[in-house]
């Protein structure tokens, strides 16, 4: 079983920055992709950013140029650096990994990000 532990959420003013972390219980190379999704109240969960085992990244249009996904192979951790935050970025952010062999998806517990003055 894969366990994901997220941290780094909180309250920040518009224009501020936060960095989310997601530590996995398994070696990072067991996953084909790692990523972050978010869900705002009354909305569906949406993709924010993903990174593949090869290091290729993909971003939602709404966060391009502001957010950056990265990984630390030695720490088995994926990060989401969020800059120039906007009120519309307010949501619960979830870490996701997909196993290479079975294609199973695993989710973190979610961390709240609130952007407000």
Structure description:
It contains no helices and eleven strands. Strand 5 (46-52) and strand 6 (57-59) form a beta hairpin. The protein has 117 residues and is mainly β.
Task: Look at the structure and give the mean pLDDT.
Answer: 96
Strands, count = 11
Task: Report helical residue fraction.
Answer: under 10%
User: Largest sheet at a glance?
Assistant: 7 strands, mixed
Oligomer: single chain
Task: Describe the global form.
Answer: globular
Strand content: over 45%
What order do the SSEs take from the amino end to the carboxyl end, as H and E? EEEEEEEEEEE
Helix-strand makeup class: mainly beta
Distance between the termini: 40 Å
- Report Rg: 13 Å
- Please report the number of helical segments: 0
* Unreliable residue runs: none
Question: Outline of this structure?
Answer:
With 117 residues, the protein is mainly β. The chain is built from no helices and 11 strands.
Task: Draw up the topology in text.
Elements: E1 4-7, E2 10-12, E3 18-24, E4 31-39, E5 46-52, E6 57-59, E7 67-72, E8 77-82, E9 91-99, E10 105-107, E11 111-115
Parallel strand pairs: 2-11
Antiparallel strand pairs: 1-3, 3-8, 4-5, 4-9, 5-6, 7-8, 9-10, 9-11
């Amino acid at each position: 079983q894969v366990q994901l532990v997220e941290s780094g959420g909180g309250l920040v003013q518009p224009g501020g920055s936060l960095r989310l972390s997601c530590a996995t219980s398994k070696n990072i190379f067991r996953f084909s992709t790692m990523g972050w999704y978010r869900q705002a109240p009354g909305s569906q969960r949406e993709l924010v950013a993903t990174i593949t085992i090869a290091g290729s990244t993909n971003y939602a249009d709404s966060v391009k140029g502001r957010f950056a996904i990265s990984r630390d192979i030695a720490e088995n951790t994926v990060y989401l650096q969020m800059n120039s935050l906007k009120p519309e970025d307010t949501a619960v952010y979830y870490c996701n990994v997909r196993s290479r062999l079975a294609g199973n998806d695993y989710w973190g517990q979610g961390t709240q990000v609130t952007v407000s003055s």
